């Protein structure tokens, strides 16, 4: 029989991970960004249950830690899909059709930016410059940069992610 896991079931694991990672950085509050990156790498996201443990370990308020997590777009508050597609929203990509591409992506996947498809395969996020202006509009699929993305190329990317 499979047991359903709740946030309360995960909290001790997440808090322990947060404390262990903070300790690797000497519980230094100035290492908060690096600690959060490592925690997200370890857990796949920054869970709410980890924030009080981080705050206590670093001698910060929970509000200070929460503020950093919510300010930076790279920190996820929910687990991502198996693949993450970041769509460049910077001016160069916008001038080459990124806004239209985003509209097509949202209709095609039936999600908004920042959401994950119902099958858990793909999370779509906004990025504010992928450094690929000459080949805009650009997307990053997991860690792979792809340029000159149009509807047809995007559909191929999705098919590869789902295969």
Q: What is this structure's SSE topology?
A:
Elements: H1 7-24, H2 32-43, H3 50-58, H4 62-71, E1 83-88, H5 91-95, H6 98-109, E2 122-127, E3 139-141, E4 144-146, H7 151-162
Helix pairs in contact: 1-2, 1-3, 3-4
Describe this structure in words.
- This protein is of the alpha+beta class and about 160 residues long.
- Helices cover about 50% and strands about 10% of the residues.
- A 4-stranded mixed β-sheet has the order 2-1-3-4.
- Strand 3 and strand 4 (about 145) form a beta hairpin.
Note the beta-strand portion. 5-15%
**Shape summary:** elongated
- List the helices and strands in order: HHHHEHHEEEH
Instruction: List the strand order in the largest sheet.
Output: 2-1-3-4
Helix content: 40-55%
The assigned structural class equals alpha+beta
For the largest beta-sheet, the strand count, sense and barrel status come to: 4 strands, mixed
SS element count, helices: 7
Radius of gyration: 18 Å
Q: Name the poorly predicted regions.
A: 5-10
Number of strands: 4
Q: What would the average pLDDT be, to the nearest integer?
A: 93
Distance between the termini: 29 Å
């Amino acid at each position: 029989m499979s047991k359903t896991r709740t946030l309360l079931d995960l909290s001790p694991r997440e808090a322990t991970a947060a404390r262990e990672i903070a300790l690797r950085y000497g519980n230094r509050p100035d290492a908060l960004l690096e600690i959060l990156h490592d925690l997200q790498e370890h857990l796949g996201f920054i869970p709410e249950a980890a924030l009080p443990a981080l705050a206590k370990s670093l001698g910060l308020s929970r509000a200070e830690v929460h503020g950093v997590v919510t300010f930076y777009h790279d920190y996820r508050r929910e687990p991502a899909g198996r693949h993450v597609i970041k769509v460049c929203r910077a001016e160069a990509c916008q001038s080459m059709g990124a806004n239209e591409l985003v509209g097509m992506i949202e209709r095609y996947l039936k999600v908004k930016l920042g959401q994950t498809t119902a099958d858990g395969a793909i999370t779509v996020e906004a990025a504010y410059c992928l450094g690929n202006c000459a080949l805009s509009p650009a997307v990053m699929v997991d860690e792979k940069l792809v340029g000159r993305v149009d509807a047809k190329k995007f559909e191929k990317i999705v098919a590869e992610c789902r295969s």
